[in-house]
């Protein structure tokens, strides 16, 4: 009986592996055949092609290096915490609630001062590690900003979860937070008032700005497969010496100032900031800051950009930016073709802004600057290889929350 069971398990594993490899191979053939339409220029970037953008939109998604770590597993509900092993880049070591209990949200209501057991806020402020899940679809309208405690994961898989139409998420002076698979949109500023941040502490807050996610003086953070849109301030802010962060597989849309990395031009402590931005869709209706960087380092890799209104990547205060393997589609506006924007008029030519193997469509172009290496210098565990830019539409096709069903691969 044991031998028969082992044979069945092995056969099932081989079947799953074969299906995955067949899908990978078929997608690669399609992508590889499209490569013949591109050629490299002297800057090691793809030149424009006369073919319309629609020719490069895939019929099926291709799993990127993060998604291939977990999405093919039909029993994901039995080991949700395995997701914590799948991050890449600077936020690789974010454990979230990997070593804690499962906490189930059953109540969409909110009390900023005395949260009830079963609500999202109750789980988010606890002192011990927790992996937070949801027992049903829900829309949560917070009455004040949700202040995350360390070693927490918010995992929306298996339900349609929205945080909307009120203040949203603050990650301040904590570490090891993972937010995965939820929608955060239409966020509003919070009024001054009392907010509980731990089981033992209630503090008077001055009010939040209306960011979807504000990361403030925090480390080891991973934001993955979220939908973010239409908030009063930014969609994601990374400020005040925050570092070790990965922002991946998210879908951004319908917003002005999308992502800010760095507090202001005088806050030099942001020199320690290191952020990986990978496999995201910067979709329609976005204006600028995808991201906008000050002082620190940003590895912007394998993202899909759909017709920004002003610019895609900007910065000031001498940040280092490596744009690698991205898929840039410029808007039709002839004054907005440039991917990059320096927020100064002079003394920027020494800044290390590099483009490597990016693909530019509709006359998009990147203005490089600086000398010397701009490599991310990842540790072995953080390191990953960028996919060719022509494959980016396929590996970002499932950006945003995924409709995962128990017992099936996502």
**How many separate helices?**
3
* Oligomer description: single chain
Number of strands: 31
Helix content: 10-25%
Family: Belongs to the polysaccharide lyase 1 family.
Subcellular location: Secreted, Cell wall
Pathway: Glycan metabolism; pectin degradation; 2-dehydro-3-deoxy-D-gluconate from pectin: step 2/5
InterPro entries: AmbAllergen, Pec_lyase, Pectin_lyas_fold, Pectin_lyase_fold/virulence, PEL
Describe this structure in words.
By secondary structure, this protein is mainly beta. It folds into 2 domains: 1-36; 42-395, Pectate Lyase C-like, CATH 2.160.20.10. 10% of the residues lie in helices and 30% in strands. The strands form 5 sheets. A 10-stranded parallel β-sheet has the order 1-2-5-8-13-16-20-24-27-30. A 9-stranded parallel β-sheet has the order 3-6-9-14-17-21-25-28-31, with no helix packed on it. Strands 4-7-12-15-19-23-26-29 form an 8-stranded parallel β-sheet, with no helix packed on it. Helix 2 links the parallel strand 1 (101-105) and strand 2. Residues 1-27 form the signal peptide. GO terms for molecular function: metal ion binding; pectate lyase activity. It is found in: Secreted, Cell wall.
């Amino acid at each position: 009986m044991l031998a028969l069971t082992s044979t069945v398990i092995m056969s099932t594993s081989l079947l799953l592996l074969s299906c995955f490899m067949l899908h990978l191979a078929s997608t690669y053939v399609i992508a590889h055949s499209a490569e013949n339409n591109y050629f490299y220029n002297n800057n090691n970037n793809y030149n424009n092609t006369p073919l319309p953008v629609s020719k490069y939109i895939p019929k099926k998604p291709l799993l990127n290096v993060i998604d291939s770590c977990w999405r093919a597993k039909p029993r994901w509900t039995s080991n949700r915490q395995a997701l914590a092993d799948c991050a890449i880049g600077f936020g690789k070591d974010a454990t979230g609630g990997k070593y804690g209990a499962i906490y189930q949200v059953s109540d969409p209501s909110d009390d900023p001062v005395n949260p009830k057991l079963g609500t999202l806020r109750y789980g988010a402020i606890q002192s011990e590690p927790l992996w937070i899940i949801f027992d049903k679809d829900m829309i949560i309208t917070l009455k004040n900003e949700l202040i995350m405690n360390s070693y927490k994961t918010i995992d929306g898989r298996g339900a349609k979860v929205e945080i909307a139409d009120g203040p949203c998420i603050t990650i301040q002076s904590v570490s090891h937070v993972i937010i995965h698979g939820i929608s955060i949109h239409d966020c509003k500023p919070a009024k001054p008032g009392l907010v509980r941040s731990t089981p033992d502490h209630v503090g008077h807050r001055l009010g939040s700005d209306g960011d979807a996610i504000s990361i403030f003086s925090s480390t080891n953070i991973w934001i993955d497969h979220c939908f973010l849109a239409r908030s009063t301030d930014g969609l994601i802010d990374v400020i005040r010496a925050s570092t070790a962060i990965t922002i991946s597989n998210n879908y951004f849309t319908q917003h002005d100032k999308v992502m800010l990395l760095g507090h202001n031009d005088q806050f030099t402590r942001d020199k320690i900031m290191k952020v990986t931005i990978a496999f995201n869709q910067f979709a329609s209706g976005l204006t600028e800051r995808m991201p906008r960087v000050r002082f620190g380092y940003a590895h912007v890799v394998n993202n899909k950009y759909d017709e920004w209104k002003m610019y895609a990547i900007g910065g000031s205060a001498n940040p280092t930016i490596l744009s690698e393997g991205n898929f840039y589609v410029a808007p039709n506006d002839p004054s907005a073709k440039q991917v990059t924007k320096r927020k100064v008029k002079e003394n920027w030519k020494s800044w290390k802004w590099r483009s490597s193997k990016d693909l530019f469509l509709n006359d998009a172009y990147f203005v490089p600057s600086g000398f010397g290496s701009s490599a991310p210098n990842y540790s072995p565990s953080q390191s990953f290889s960028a996919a060719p830019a022509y494959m980016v539409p396929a590996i970002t096709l499932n950006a945003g929350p995924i409709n995962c069903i128990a017992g099936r691969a996502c």
